[in-house]
Give the backbone structure.
Amino acid sequence: MVGQTRGDYPVTPGKYVNPGSSQFIHKLDHDLENSQWSTRFGNGSSVQDLSPTAFLVSDCGQIYFSGWGGSTNSAAGNSSSTTNGMEVTADAFQSTTDGSDFFLMLLDPEAAGLSYATYFGGSESAEHVDGGTSRFDKDGTVYQAVCAGCQNNDDFPTTPGAWSNTNNATGCNLGVVKFELSIPIADIQIAGPSEVCFPATVQFANNSSGGDTYFWSFGDGGTSSEYAPAHTFMEEGEFIVTMEMTDQFGCTQSASDTLEITTLPPPIASIEPVGPICPGGSVQLFGSDGIAWEWTPAEGLDDPSAQSPIATPDSVIVYQLVVTGTCGTDTARVELAFIEPEGMALDDEEVCLGSSVTIEATGGGTYAWTPTESVSDPTTAAPSVDPVVDTWYTVEITTPDGCTIIDSLLVTVVLNAPEAVLSDTAICVGGSVQLIGPEAATHTWEPASAVSEAFIVDPIASPPSSQWIVVIASNGCGTIRDSAFVQVIDPQADAWPDSTVCPGRSVQLGASGGISFIWSPTTGLDDPTAPFPTATIDSPISYTVSVTDIYGCEASATVTFGLLPPPFVDAGPDQVMDLGQSVQLNATGQGLIEWTPPFGLDCTDCPAPLARPSESTTYTATLTDENGCRSSDVVRVLLTGTIYVPNTFSPNGDGINDLFGASGTEIKTLKLEIFDRWGVLIYTGNTANAWWDGKYGGQDAPIDVYVWRIETEEMIGTKRTLYGHVTLVR
């Protein structure tokens, strides 16, 4: 049963519900004693918003409801009545309302869910029922009499061919509605174009109503039970897609819809094969079908964007064609090769004035010689000619392939036989020289083994020894023999002296056999390009000199130096002495000894002189052995340090005794510190030349006795610390 409520009407879990609404549906058992389930529907308002007009439970258990709401109910005391806020389904006949319309609803069996819901009414009039007739038949069709078009409106929905599509009354008029809620309508579409490129995924749209189970067949063996599936087509072809819709409760008949989709393949690019062409020729290229073409490179093409351009290439080339179709692009390539026609004019000829000579060409099917003057037959391969001046003859050769070759040869007119031109010459051993023979048509050189090529005008001659070389030269007027004597120069170089010398000794080298010299290595040489350089020998070494003679021929020689062992000398250990004393030096070694410097020595050419230097001195003992080789060693004589410190100074600015400090000899480092009577450090100097000017903090220090401390290190390494005092007076 269906009705209205203002109370807290119970809602059974699992049922379709619009919570808080004021309409209810309730199912009781057959004897009306027990409730089986109940639910509420409407726009969620607790005040009745709908006036029920028809209600039906079909043989399949589907629940049908028809009612209206709106401003007309205010006359009956219900100002809250409205159709606003009702839930409609996506496939609703009318999904909007002006608040005063009819509301039609279909629930699944046992109110398990909302199957269909729609508004019905005009956009201006307040449709309602004043005691009119309304009913459902068992097939789910509602027949409704309606007060429609009130206020003289023509907005009530009508169908084509209706009794009247307009309200011909001055107020409300009777509208009659037959609305089939359960008639299935199958309607499928493609969400996109009907022609696609495979492989392609196609999304389908489902606008069907009246069913809840769907079976799709895509025509390629694929199926789906989704509401609006997507399917991927992997093959080319035309496919009939069918969707069959049914009702899982069997309350409606099945419905189906079909559509056709075409899958297109990507283009396949191809170019018709092209045979080789003649140099300079043209050929048309034929590309496969498409909607656009791009040939690369564009070089030699009359239209790179045409399907079949004309190609006139300059050389062998590969053309690439990109064909664009509806479904993408593809690429093909073709190579254009050239026929290599074989044909040419043969060798140049010479003819003596007043005579004739045969000229010749090969490779042709036909020939055409120009100029035609003095040519016996310009169309033959080998005509005879008798020019009176040097003449170039050009032949146009047409090969059996149809290619054209143009070549030429020179016929030189000579007045006399060749003239001798060779002259004698010289080369270095292993060298060569170019010989240029007389002007002639042919040349034959003898002996052939002495030249690079025996039948050219200018061969390279490289005889192993001095000899005559002859050329036989011929032209159209005669033959002569010409000759040249080729002298082969074998240069000789000499270098001196080989020797063994003392380390560091300077020796003059010498070389002969040419006019220029290059010594290597250059180590120790004062001038590596001189014939007599001076070499300083520090280790065993060999010098090679490259000598060039007046002919430009080169030879080399080597000089070698060994090294005598250096003599041994020991100047003895370092010694320490006080100033004024003397020490005995003693150098050992086999040879003559000489001491330097001589200062403080009683002798300089004895091995053991007495040394009495006035300051620390380093003495060098140089020994010369029997070979004249010299070695040196050194010994240090170190003096102990002395230091002098005054006891009084007067820093009064008179330039006399104004500074205080320490002086001495043989002192390496000195540090001077001065303290006042209270032990305060008032001056520090860190060099041997440090002097105190009697000031402290930029002010004159008072007359007083000050303590000093000196830290020194002598040249011999001895360190000392000295203490004393100094009196400052002014």
